[in-house]
Amino acid sequence: MPLLYFDEFCKKTKLPSATCARIADSYRFTSEKISLAKKLLQKELTGISSKNKYCIVAVGSYGRYEASQESDLDGYVIYEKNLSQVTIVAINEKIKEVARKSGIRLSGGFDPISLDDMHKNIGGNDDTNPSITNRILFLLESECLYGQPFYSLSYRKILKKYLNDLLKFKKQSPRFLLSDIIRYYRTICVDYEFKITEENKDWALRNIKLRFSRKGLYFGGIAILLNSMNKRDTDKYDYICKNLRLPFADKIAHILLEQQKSHEHAKILTLYAAFLKEISKKRTRNCLKRLHKSDRAKDEKFCSLEKKAKDFNESLRKLLNKGTWGGKNYIDLLVL
Predict the structure, then answer these.
(1) Which of 68, 58, 71 lies closest to 27 in space, CA to CA?
(2) What is the pLDDT of residue 1?
(3) Rounded to an integer, what distance in angstroms lies between the CA atom of residue 144 and that of residue 41?
(4) What one-character DSSP code corresponds to residue 126?
(5) What pLDDT was estimated at residue 336?
(6) C-alpha gyration radius of the chain
(7) Which of 60, 107, 149, 175 could disulfide-pair with 72, CB 3.0 to 4.6 Å?
(8) Residues 6 or more apart in contact with residue 264 via CB below 8 angstroms
(9) pTM of the entire predicted model
(10) Number of helices (H) and strands (E), helices first, in the chain?
């Protein structure tokens, strides 16, 4: 996935060169790792049949093109419901082998999921936290590692389910998808609280990620949907399809360029680049993992990142307040 807008944004604005370099470096590192993984998967999976019945996707920092040497790969399989479990197990083993050969740590947080389950259970009793996570991350930050035809089919099928009214009727807002992105973000906020209180997991690193990358994922998604309201009714769906999956920096750069607000809100990207720089350092991550909540006010690194997170939040709020969203009040769309 190329950066469609960020390079132009750097040329047209007074964005610090360090900001442009940091985001470009993260993108370059991720691209190289993903390219290697794709080549290895293509080779390793040649002996497995039913290649047009599944795809392998990367989400998380690799899906956002923000990975570093400290990042884990969050990858999973999306498949047709009639694909055998034997085949799915074999595919998963190949993913593990390719991750090892690529020098990428593979996380174990995602199970394979059928396209049927992703498409049919939206909002139903079976729409669990893992299923909404799979679906929203797939739409907002996924990269196809293998099986592009099935990936494209799956993406458009799920997106059309969300945007059916947008395609059928004039003057519609993408409320269904907006609501589910909001629901997902609130779900991970609640999940964060559960993990640090009930499961006693490390809190500081999760806290900073929640306030930057998770919030960036959420904000980037809703900003693209809000900006689609500036388009003609016949163009809204294609606009969303093209831009919803862009990296956060590219989404923000695009909206600021299009709305001619580049200089006014460039701080969003400066702060996000500072986060990417720190989170890529092993020393910073280890410091945050060891930090006890009772010591948070005394820890210089955490306090610095927390201050940047507050500035980041305020900068996003300013863009919402001053942005142009098709003549609609964004509060009505996001809250009421």
Answers:
(1) 68
(2) 67
(3) 11
(4) T
(5) 74
(6) 20
(7) 107
(8) 256, 322
(9) 0.95
(10) 18, 5
The single-letter code of the amino acid at 107 is S
pLDDT in tens, 161-186: 999 999 999 889 999 999 999 999 99
Length of the chain: 336
Residue 5's nearest CA partner among 185, 159, 223 is 223
The region, left, alpha or beta by phi > 0 then psi within -120 to 50, assigned to residue 114 is: beta
Q: Are 184 and 173 in contact (CB under 8 A)?
A: no
Which residue spans within the chain are E strands per DSSP? Answer: 54-59, 72-79, 105-106, 113-114, 143-146
Burial class (CB in 10 A: 0-12, 13-18, 19+), 93: exposed
Closest-CA residue to 314 (of 214, 167, 215): 215
> Which positions ≥6 away from 300 have C-beta within 8 Å?
none
* Domains (range + CATH), the chain: 15-162 (3.30.460.10), 175-336 (no CATH)
Which residues sit opposite 76 in a β-bridge? 57
Closest CA to 316 of 241, 214, 238: 214
3-state secondary structure of 114: strand
CB 263 within 8 A of CB 257: no
d(CA 120, CA 131): 11
Count how many Cα atoms sit within 13 Å of the Cα of residue 218 in the half-sphere of its side chain: 24
From the list 255, 242, 190, the residue with the least C-alpha distance to 216 is: 255
| pLDDT score, position 240 | 98
> Which residue type is seen at 243?
N
Residue type, 148: Q
User: What number is the average pLDDT over the span 1-28?
Assistant: 92
Helix axes 267-279, 300-322, angle to 10 degrees: 150
Bridge partners of 184, per DSSP, are none
Residue 159 · residue 146 · CB < 8 Å: no
What letter does residue 211 receive in the DSSP assignment? I
